[in-house]
Amino acid sequence: MLKLAVLVSGGGTNLQAIIDSIADGRITNAQIVSVISNNKNAYALTRAEEAGIPAQCVSPKDYVDRDAFNEALLHALIASEADLVVLAGCLVVMPEQIVERFENRIINIHPSLIPSFCGKDYYGLKVHEGVLARGVKVTGATVHFVDKGTDTGPIILQKAVEVRRGDTPEELQQRVMREAEWVIMPQAIDLIANGKVKVEDGKVRFL
User: CA-CA distance, 119 to 111, in Å (whole number)?
Assistant: First the structure.
């Protein structure tokens, strides 16, 4: 049974998609053992508590500096005994020591088709604003492993979503979540939980 630690920052819609997918059998051989938020007011913490999942806040505001916060987050992940760390709408950049400790065991969902509209300046609505400003016709979402770069790790799954005329960033964000993020994140977890994913030469190979 693959043990998941899910890191969140806000509403927790991707967390809910994972919870629901475990419940209905779309994700097999996996369980969430911990939900950790950097934001004490994140509704994701409420979702976890309602689902009976251990949840906690590890906020940088509670530590003297970033190094102390990073160390606390690392200790929380180790204590959870998680096999896989899932960044589900988590706005914390994973520090080097966590990436090294959990090499090829951290996955992230990004709301675009990497390598387009990704990197340190693209997060949340900024991604969808960038898509609309550029006038692309197709966007989507990407699940990838996390490495020491920003959105540069091996790609696991991608799903395309149509950009419609007259879309607002908010409308596009909702469509990308509904049609792509909530679909491929559970798929990726299920693949990993059942031993069907391997990283070779910086790329994902399906077994």
Answer: 11
- For 98-137, give the DSSP string: HHHHTTT-EEEEESS-TTTT-STT--THHHHHHHHHHT-S
pLDDT tens, residue by residue, 140-167: 999 999 999 999 999 999 999 999 999 9
Beta bridge partners of 55: 35
Please answer whether residues 145 and 153 qualify as being in contact, where contact means their C-beta atoms are separated by less than 8 angstroms: yes
- Residues contacting 23, CB < 8 A, separation 6+: none
List, in sequence order, every residue forming a beta bridge with 206; answer none if it has no partner. 197
Cα gap 171→174, rounded to integer Å:
5
Q: List, as one string, the DSSP characters of 131-143.
A: HHHHT-SEEEEEE
**Residues forming the active site:** 110
Determine what percent of the chain falls in helix, strand and coil, rounding each to the nearest 5.
40, 25, 35
d(CA 128, CA 151): 16
- Give Cα 151 to chain centroid, integer Å: 11
The model's pTM is 0.96
Rounded to whole angstroms, how far apart are CA atoms 191 and 180?
A: 16
| 166-194 pLDDT, tens digit each | 999 999 999 999 999 999 999 999 999 99
- Is-contact 32 19, C-beta < 8 A? yes
